């Protein structure tokens, strides 16, 4: 539609995703996440909102542009664990877990299977290194005039009030944390084999994730967002 102006704001995984286990991590000293050794520059949702506000305030000057707001530095799971060690005042160890186990924990915490179904693609991209390509960007500061928030500051805010993470996340005692682990282990994992129940009637013929698409990787390394090619452009 040539008469419609388009702006793409395309953030990756939000910073709070790394902190959903805060109540248990604080008590038991373990950070269980399904991200392998992959790195990401997790961005605060407020920084994404600040970018969106700038784009919406005067969209005409930004039509045809794409933006990828990120946090200020690339972090692995072990890096995040080190930051949380300082925030919590105790040693925190990163534990890479399967996405199946992560989805069991999400279910036990009250998150929907639909949320987990979508997050599994992000987890695969982090494990495969896609989110590290071209990151971090300077897009938050370019748009808003101030840099993105440091992850340690974000972690301190959520540690002070875990209910900020999600309505069903709350601080736990040591006994409560152990009880949650037992509940998680007893919770059946979601069945993602039936994709129709999550995706509805719309399906891509041959979808590729970012780490499977050489064109996407080249665009990301150049700070661009690879969009659907036009009718006269080659398709892969």
Give the full name of the CATH homologous superfamily.
NAD(P)-binding Rossmann-like Domain
The main β sheet shows up as: 2 strands, parallel
The tally of strands reads 4
Radius of gyration: 19 Å
Number of domains: 1
Average pLDDT metric: 85
Q: Would you give the CATH topology?
A: Rossmann fold
Q: What is the helix content?
A: 40-55%
Helix/strand order: EHEHEHEHHHHHHH
List low-pLDDT spans.
229-236
Class derived from helix and strand content = mainly alpha
The oligomerization state is single chain
Strand content: 5-15%
CATH architecture: 3-Layer(aba) Sandwich
Number of helices: 10
Strand order, largest beta sheet: 1-3
- Terminus-to-terminus distance: 23 Å
What is the CATH class name?
Alpha Beta
Question: What spatial form do the alpha-carbon principal axes imply?
Answer: globular
């Amino acid at each position: 539609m040539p008469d419609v102006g388009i702006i793409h704001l395309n953030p990756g995984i939000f910073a709070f995703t790394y902190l959903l286990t805060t109540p248990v991590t604080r008590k038991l000293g373990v950070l269980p996440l399904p991200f392998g050794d992959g790195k990401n520059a997790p961005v605060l949702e407020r920084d994404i909102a600040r970018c969106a506000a700038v784009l919406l305030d005067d969209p005409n000057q930004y039509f045809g542009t794409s933006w990828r707001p990120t946090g200020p530095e690339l972090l692995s799971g072990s890096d995040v664990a080190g930051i949380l060690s300082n925030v919590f005042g105790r040693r925190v160890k990163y534990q890479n877990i399967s996405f199946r186990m992560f989805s069991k924990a999400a279910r036990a915490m009250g998150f929907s299977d639909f949320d987990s179904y979508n997050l599994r693609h992000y987890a695969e991209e982090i494990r495969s290194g896609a989110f590290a390509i071209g990151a971090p960007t300077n897009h938050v500061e370019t748009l808003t005039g101030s840099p993105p928030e440091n992850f340690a500051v974000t972690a301190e805010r959520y540690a002070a009030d875990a209910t900020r993470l999600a309505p069903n996340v709350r601080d736990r005692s040591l006994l409560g944390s152990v009880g949650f682990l037992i509940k998680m282990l007893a919770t059946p994992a979601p069945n993602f084999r039936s994709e129709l129940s999550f995706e509805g009637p719309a399906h891509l013929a041959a979808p590729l994730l970012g780490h499977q698409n050489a064109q996407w990787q080249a665009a990301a390394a150049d700070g661009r967002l690879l969009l659907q090619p036009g009718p006269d452009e080659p398709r892969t």
